[in-house]
What does this fold into?
Amino acid sequence: MTNAVDRATDLLVQRTTEGLDPALERELTELLTRCPELDPESFELAAAAIEMTAVDTNEPLPATLRQRVLRQADTFFADAAAAEDSTPVRDTVVPFERPATAAPAGDTPSSSSVTPWLGWLVAAAVALAAFTLWPRAEQISTIEARQTAPTEPTPAQPTIAEQRATLIAAAADLLSIDWSSTQDPAAVEASGQVVWSTELQRGFMTFRGLPVNDPTVEQYQLWIFDTEQDAKYPVDGGVFDITAAGEVIVEIDPKLRIQEPTLFAVTIEKPGGVVVSSRERLPLLAQVG
Amino acid sequence: MQDDILPRLGAGESGAAEQCLDRYGSLVWSLARRHTRTPAEAEDAVQEIFLSIWKHADRFDPAKASETTFVAMVARRRLIDLFRRKDRRPETAFGEGEQELVLDVAAGKIEERTDAGLAARAIQELKPKERQAVMLSIYQGMSHSEISNHLKLPIGSVKTYIRRGLAQVRKTLQQGRDPLKKLTVAT
It folds into this structure.
C-alpha cells in the first residue's frame, strides 16, 4: 500500500467514525485525486449498514417536521430548476401554513432603548467576526423566500400587518428590537424593528426607508445568530424584497429552528440569495439584549 | 421490490420528495434521535440531512449499496459533521450492541437479505477486538481515544482494529451485492 493510499484510507476511516475538520477534509480530497482506486464512500456505507442494525424505525417522522422538510424540498427543486433555466430565482411566495390565530391586533411595543452606535459597534463586531468565519460549505439551508409583501388580502387571509399584530398580542416571549443602521449606503434612511417569538417560531421585520430593490439585480437576505447554533453558522432567515417606499413588513422565515436568537442581520445579496455571504453589504443589524 | 427514489430526485423530480419522506423519514428521524440530545436538535438535523439528500441524490449508485444504506450514510455524515462542529460527541443512549445484535438477527428483526443483515453477519465474524472496537465506535459513538481508554489499548491499535473491521464489513457488503443487487432494509 502506498503512503498516499494508506493515509487516505486512515482519513476515510476517521471521516466515517469521527468526522474531519476542514483541513483534513482538504487533505483527503487532494489524496483521493491521487488514489482513484479508493472508493471514498465505502467505509461510510459499511458504517451506515452497521448502524442500521441498531435503528428502531417504528417512530414516524413528526408531522410538522415532515411539512417543513417538504416545503424545503419544494424550494430546493424550484431553485434548482430556475438555476438550470439561467433565470433569476425568486418571487416565490410560499403560503403561510400555520393555523391563523384570531387574537385581536395589539399595539406594537415601544422601541427598545438601545444606543444605536454602541449597539451597532457591538453587533457589527459580533456579526463581522461571525461572517469572517462563515464556512464555505453546505451548512446553511437552501434559500426560500417566504416574503409576504403588503398586498391585497383575501377575506380568509389576514394581512401581514394583522398577522404581525396577532403575533405581538399572542406571544408571551416576544422580542422587539430596533434595527441599527450601519454605514452601508442602503442604511442611510433605514429604520424599523424585528419582532420575534421563539416559542411560536415566528417573527416579522418592519422596514422604513430601506431602498426598493430590483430583484433581478440584488435582494435582501436575513441571517439569524443563535446561541444554540455555532456563531459561524447563522441561520438563513429568508430572502426578501423591498417592494415599496414607506413601511414594509416581511415575515421571517428561518430554515432551522431558532433556540435563542442573539442577532438579526440583513445583507444585500445577488438574486435568489446565497448560502455563503460575501459580507460586502450589511445595512441593518438588530442585537438581542 | 420497491423502485429507487433517489434517481428521480437526482433528475430534479420534486414530487419524489414526498415518497422519499414516506420511505426514509422514519429511518432518518431514528438516526437523528440516536445522535442528538433533544427533539429540537433532532428536528434541525433532519432538515439538514434531507437537504443533503436532495443535493446528493444523483450520486446514489445502486451497484455500491442499497438506497436505504445510501440515505443512512448521508444522514450519518451530516450528524457526525454537526457534532464535530459543536465539538462534542452525541449523548449515547445506544445499546450495548453485540448481544442485542445477535438476538435481533436471530429473532428476524434484521432481515438477512439486506445491507443491515449482511453487516450484522459480518460483525459476528470479526475478530473479538475488531468487533469490540467497531461496535464501540459505531454503536456507542465513542471517539478513538475514548475506545482506547475503555479497552486499555494504544490508540494506534484501536484505529487499526476499526479500520480492519470496517474493511471486512465493506467486503461482505460488496460480495453480497452481486447476487442480491438492490436491497432494502426491513423497517
Observations:
- Residues 28 and 263 of chain A are 35 Å apart (CA to CA).
- The helical segments of chain A are 3-17, 22-34, 42-52, 63-84, 116-132, 160-170.
- Residues 63-84 of chain A form the longest helix (22 residues).
- The radius of gyration of chain A is 22 Å.
